[in-house]
Give the backbone structure.
Amino acid sequence: MPRTKGDHEARRRDVSEAVWQVMATRGFAGLTLRAVATELGATTGLLTHYFPTKRALVEYALDLLEQRTLSRPRRQAGKGLAALRAALLDILPLTPEATDSNRIWVSSWDAALSDADLSADYARKYAQSRDRLCDRVAAAQELGELPPGNPADIAAGAQSFTLGLVVQALFAPAAFTPQRQVELLDDYLAALAAPSSAENDDSTGS
C-alpha cells in the first residue's frame, strides 16, 4: 500500500521531534544521524531519505531551532522601556523550554563559527535582533524613559549583556536562577535609564 502525503508529513514531524530531543539532551555537538535514528527508533538508512549528508541534518536542525524560537509565546508590554525589557526577557533561559532553546543555540555556535555560510547567517540573525531592539530603544528615548544617545549602540550593548547573561545562566544555573537573571537585567536597564553624570552637572549649573 503506497504511503500517503499525510504519512509523509507525520513522519517528518516525528523526525523533527527526534532531532529536537537529541539537541536538547546532547547539545548540538551530539547531533548525528545515529543519535537521531536511536531517538526515533529507526535505522540510519531511513534517515538518509531526509538527510543525505551531515550538512543537510545541520541545516535542518538550525531551521527547526529558529522555527521553534520564533513560535514561542512572547511577552506583550506596550511601548518604550517596558517593550525593551520584555524583548530581553524573552531571550533569557527563564523556563525549561527557553533553557533548552538557549542550550542548543549556544552549542551550535561552534558549528557556525567553522562554516562561513552558517557564520554569515548567524550574523544576519543577530543583526536583525539588534534592529528590533533598536526600535524599542528609540521609542523609549522618545518617551523620555532613556537618555539621548545612539539607539543602535544602546541596542548592541543590551543584546551583548543579555547574551552574556544567557551563557552564565547555562553554565551556573544555581547561581543565575531565573529570579537572579531578572534582577540583573532590571539593574542593567535601571543603569541605562539613569541620567549620566554630565547631564546631572548641566542640570545643576542651569
In short: The radius of gyration is 21 Å.
